[in-house]
Amino acid sequence: MKIEVLQPGETFKGMSYGDWAAVWTNWLLSPEVDTYKGQHILFLRGNIDYKPVSSVPGAPRHQDQDGFLNMTGKKGYKVLEGTSVFIPVTLASYTIGDYFDGKIIENEVELRNALHSDFNLIRTIWAVIKKNNSKKYFKIVPNLAPYKMESPLFRLTVPKNSVLNEFQDEPLKPGTYYATVGGYFILVKSLPQSTYRISFGAEGPGEYSTRSIYDIEVHGNKSRITKDISGRI
Predict the structure, then answer these.
(1) All residues at 6 or more sequence positions from 66 whose CB lies less than 8 Å from its CB, including other chains
(2) Are 224 and 41 contacting, i.e. CB atoms less than 8 angstroms apart?
């Protein structure tokens, strides 16, 4: 299956992978996450469902290793041909003021050191696609290693009505932060008309795992796209 993907070092609409990753991170913590209103780019995401292990304030948080984000069937998306798809295969993000290795991150150098430490320990990573009438998945890119990217230092805004903030492993207080994000990202420039299933995720470091499955219907005629109902979580 031939898919046009933004290559490392290229820009798309004047923005690099790192620039798009910064935009995506602000989207992830916005009130509009998982909604699609006909934008020219569709943002996907990993599974975020951390919960405290007890009712004690400050208790450790845990996410079911066997859980995954299921955006298939009626939860899937319907888009027009020419819509781009941004896939965050796996990532980490830190803000100035976060704790890492028992110390407060105070500057950009320390932010990037934290990112590098996380991604040296990934065991398994994948991003595959198939047409829904097929049983065989294909790799979206032959090798994910060149798609490891980092954002520039950027301003991250966490609103009070963020949908996913409280489900992160370490929720942030509402406000504005200086942040960086790094990971493996793929930007599909467009998909031909058809119905697709995309699966992506990673395992490691430690017990960390993430897996997401999305259905995407690509249409060429706007009248065929019905009202989006995928905003429900």
Answers:
(1) none
(2) no
**Residue 132: which domain range?**
4-35+60-224
Asked, for residue 174, whether it belongs to a domain, the answer is yes
Q: Residue 111: helix, strand or coil by DSSP?
A: helix
Round the CA-based radius of gyration of the chain to a whole number and report it. 18
53 part of a folded domain:
no
Residues in the chain with pLDDT values less than 70: 49-67, 120-121, 205-207, 221-233
Instruction: Give the pTM.
Output: 0.88
Neighbouring residues of 135: CB distance < 8 A, sequence distance ≥ 6: none
In the numeric block, which tokens belong to residue 23? 């935009």
φ/ψ bin of 161: left (φ > 0), alpha (ψ from -120 to 50), beta (otherwise) = alpha
Asked if residue 48 belongs to a domain, the reply is: no
- Residue 41 inside a domain? The answer is no
Q: How many domains does the chain have?
A: 1
- Give the length of the chain: 233
Backbone angles phi, psi at 137, to 5 degrees: -85, 150
